[in-house]
Amino acid sequence: MEMDSIDCVSFSDGMDEDEIQHHTLHPHNHSEFSSNKPRNGGANSNNVMGATAISPATSVHELLECPVCTNSMYPPIHQCHNGHTLCSTCKTRVHNRCPTCRQELGDIRCLALEKVAESLELPCKYYSLGCPEIFPYYSKLKHETVCNFRPYNCPYAGSECSVVGDIPFLVAHLRDDHKVDMHTGCTFNHRYVKSNPREVENATWMLTVFHCFGQYFCLHFEAFQLGMAPVYMAFLRFMGDENEARNYSYSLEVGANGRKLIWEGTPRSIRDSHRKVRDSHDGLIIQRNMALFFSGGDKKELKLRVTGRIWKEQQNPDAGVCIPNLCN
Ligand SMILES: [Zn+2]
Ligand SMILES: [Zn+2]
Ligand SMILES: [Zn+2]
Ligand SMILES: [Zn+2]
């Protein structure tokens, strides 16, 4: 996953953010954070945003916004002789001139603001997407790179697509912008035909989206070079997070002439890039000779019939899971 690096991060003073424990919001505060933007402040309770009408945390949060690039500032935070602050990224760019007053910048660190930041607790930036958690200022950023409510990247392979969004948005995007085939149901029967099976270099690939159990799944089929050998691969990705993906299993079958290959697995989350799943070989892999054998005929054309099924597993959230590539 590529995180969008919009914050000026510089932990150069040895601050150990691991030592700061994050914690979830107290239940009675949930609705306040899910319905209020933090900048509006929490005016009616003793929550972390402060009990006064103008929340102190909110105004301090604004102070922690770099006036030059508007990103959140992290240590070392700098200031000029007149007290104008700016982030360490901007400091390297302004040629020793304060962008606010044009005076010489010098090398003054704003320790007071850094200390104040340390005392802050703020909601995750994806609170409007449903994340109920709040974090100490310096560990918020770390959480946001792994937050379950962060938007997903477009799962389409074969082109660089920078579209991000939630699942309903991405389903519509795949259908409308990438013209991906959409199917309803938990079984499938697909024929992949390729007129020149020798051309694997250009990585032929196909994507089909399945809708079942109220969820969406991406079935990928593609040809690529594995070492010296051209292979075909089919695998399923779940449009959602990994912990939910574990609730499902799928099987794929390909064969002809009395032989068949069967793959059974757990769909991978689209949080894992298409390439990562492919490179971990977490799917049905068909050697080209076998693929041509299954194709029958004169072996000039690839004709593979892949059948498959998706099913829901008994829920067992404590079950250990071993994802290839992560466990060895
Ligand atoms: Zn800045
Ligand atoms: Zn200044
Ligand atoms: Zn979050
Ligand atoms: Zn896309």
TrEMBL record:
Biased composition (Polar residues): 32-48
EC number: 2.3.2.27
Ion transport recorded as keyword: no
Domain named RING-type: residues: 66-102
SUPFAM superfamilies to which the protein is assigned, alphabetical: RING/U-box, TRAF domain-like
Cellular component, GO annotation: cytoplasm
Coiled coil: none
Presence of keyword Zinc-finger: yes
Ranges for domain SIAH-type: 119-179
CDD domains reported for this sequence: RING-HC_SIAHs (cd16571), Sina (cd03829)
Swiss-Prot/TrEMBL catalytic activity: S-ubiquitinyl-[E2 ubiquitin-conjugating enzyme]-L-cysteine + [acceptor protein]-L-lysine = [E2 ubiquitin-conjugating enzyme]-L-cysteine + N(6)-ubiquitinyl-[acceptor protein]-L-lysine
Any GO BP annotation: protein ubiquitination
This protein's pathway: Protein modification; protein ubiquitination
Molecular function in Gene Ontology: ubiquitin protein ligase activity; zinc ion binding
Domain of life: Eukaryota
Region (Disordered): 26-48
Keywords: Metal-binding, Transferase, Ubl conjugation pathway, Zinc, Zinc-finger
Gene3D superfamilies: Apoptosis, Tumor Necrosis Factor Receptor Associated Protein 2, Chain A (2.60.210.10), Zinc/RING finger domain, C3HC4 (zinc finger) (3.30.40.10)
Signal peptide as annotated in the record: none
Record family assignment: Belongs to the SINA (Seven in absentia) family.
Protein name: RING-type E3 ubiquitin transferase
